[in-house]
Amino acid sequence: MNLGIFLTISAIVQLINSTPLEDFVNNNDDLSIVKRTILNTTKTDRLTTLKYNFTSLKWFNESFSSSSIWWHYVYINIPTNLKPSSPIYFHIDNGDNNKDADGSNSLISLLASNCQCVTVTMRQIPNQPFRLKLDPNDGLKKEDDLIASSFYVYMNFKNKFPNSNNIPLLFPMTKAVKRGMDMVVEVLNEKNIEFLENFIVSGASKRGWVSYLTAAVDPRIFAVIPIVFDFVNLNANFHAQYRSLGGKYTFALKDYYDYELSKNIDTIEAYDLFKLVDVNMYLENLRDKIIYMIVGTGDEFMMPENLEHFIRNLKIQTNNVFVRVLDANHYLTGQEFSLILSIQGFLVLLSKGPSYFPKYDWKFSNSLTEGKIEGKISNLKAFESYEFNSYSARTANNKRIDFRKNTIKGPQQIKWVKNVLVKSSPITKTSLSRNVSVKISKSNYIGFYLESTLKFKGEKQYFVFSSNINIAPDTYPIGDCIGAECKGQLV
Fold it and tell me: Which residues form the signal peptide (predicted)?
């Protein structure tokens, strides 16, 4: 076959099979507004940091929103000990476009010298605050309120727009990150810096959501670190939360609740929305990506059972999945240093290559009186020693499966108890196994998980990961809802 014909056919097939998100992200009709301006350059013995003002995209026009053109602060950290073979670490961050203060780049810049790689912080994802003109709720919005507003506009007014698939805010958030990656590549090329055009992308909360989506549409991303975001398989997790919290939803979902997403969770409009923004719809695109999820056991947004509704599919679709569960709230308060150490360990593992990744399997088995986790780790050639710990906590009662640090009424006392199973010991076998059992009570729920710590050979760093959380008894306090009765309340 003629090569030109083959390439044309391949392009057509790719176009036919592309998702609406891919179509939007790769559409360059607005490319003329993309620009960057260097704001300052900071140099130390270890690092050069370039700070840019970057205009990334145009999203619809002024008749749709009060902020159609998006701009960001982007920091590019180039260490003096840069390894040209290292991937680029790209962190997605929040920010306010109406304030002079533009936040900190310190934690991400700290990673640059340690991983001997270029690190990037891209802020103002999304641009905010602004309002969508078709939203009847007046006023400038930001964060979840802004995302929920875009969901409302899509579900109620999508027939008014020829490009209605582009309405959910996750779309421009994803495109802005892709454009930011393009900008970083341009800057490094202009400065004749030798680098590898592979990316590790991280982000917290909705930025974690965007890190998944960006990885699903950009082949340059080979690893993802979604932080405090596991709200995947949206419909299933809304229903699970309704049942877990006794017909209620966490107060942290107030913005989505106020826009009646829970009430309309089973409608065709919600189904169409989730086809566009639910990470569960992009698992095929995430095949062979390496994912290291960092979640908090006391998260006010994300319930411990969230992972259960997609982890099996994710493990099938992706090369490896590692989960680090922290005893923390949604903001990982007080866990910032631990967070950086976990990421550093993951970066060390990535630098060694896929053949060195440990394989971790776990199995839950619960009876009427006992809950059990059986864990096994194999492929340990990168490590010299190991530890096994388990953590467990009990809910206040049997009315709700509720491990949150905070509720609508204020803090609740959920205490996670550490149980040392194996102290630091040398690895002498090709695989390691450990089980943990707990007593099940009729008066509350217990959540427990296994945590493994592996020390790299000849290095100071550790790789830490855990099983999913086993919740026992494995029955919900109440039955499921259907349709509008899923509206529920906030708790």
Answer: 1-18
Provide the pLDDT for residue 320.
Answer: 65
DSSP, residue by residue, 307-325: GGGTHHHHHHHSSEEEEEE
Number of domains observed in the structure of the chain? 1
**pTM for the complete prediction?**
0.94
Structure tokens at 392: 């467990």
Q: 96: domain CATH number?
A: 3.40.50.1820
Q: Return all residues near 454 (Cβ < 8 A) that are at least 6 apart.
A: 358, 377, 380, 382, 383, 385, 386, 427, 462, 463, 464
pLDDT confidence of residue 3: 34
Contact 400, 245 (CB under 8 A): yes
- pLDDT tens-digit series, residues 99-130: 865 667 888 998 999 999 999 999 999 999 99
List C-alpha distances in Å: 61 to 23, 143, 306: 18, 20, 36
Phi-psi region at 247: left, alpha or beta (left = phi > 0; alpha = psi -120 to 50): left
The verdict on residue 282 lying in a domain is yes
Distance from C-alpha of 348 to C-alpha of 343, rounded to nearest angstrom: 9
Domain annotation covers residue 307: yes
d(CA 246, CA 115): 45
State the residue range of the domain holding 75: 25-361
Average pLDDT over residues 401-430: 96
The answer to whether residue 406 is domain-embedded is no
Q: What is the distance between the alpha carbons of residues 238 and 482, in angstroms, rounded to a whole number? A: 11
Q: Which of 119, 121, 126, 89 is nearest to 105 (CA)?
A: 121
